[in-house]
Amino acid sequence: MKFKTKATNSLDKKIGCVFMYLVFTTxxxxxxxxxxxxxxxxxxxHVLILTLFIVLLGTLIKLLLR
Length: 66
Hints:
By secondary structure, the protein is mainly α. Helices cover 70% and strands 0% of the residues. The chain contains 2 helices and no strands.
């Protein structure tokens, strides 16, 4: 079976990364909520900002180590 290789579009990759980021953040939020590890006043937005900070920090470290 032969598959034609299509050049990946950068927009497709960006949309996929954003979608998977939201899926990961949602799963993390529900796990932390079920295990009662979140402070009572926190909501989904707090977890979203926290994971975004971790992603940006990792990207910054990756750029600094080049």
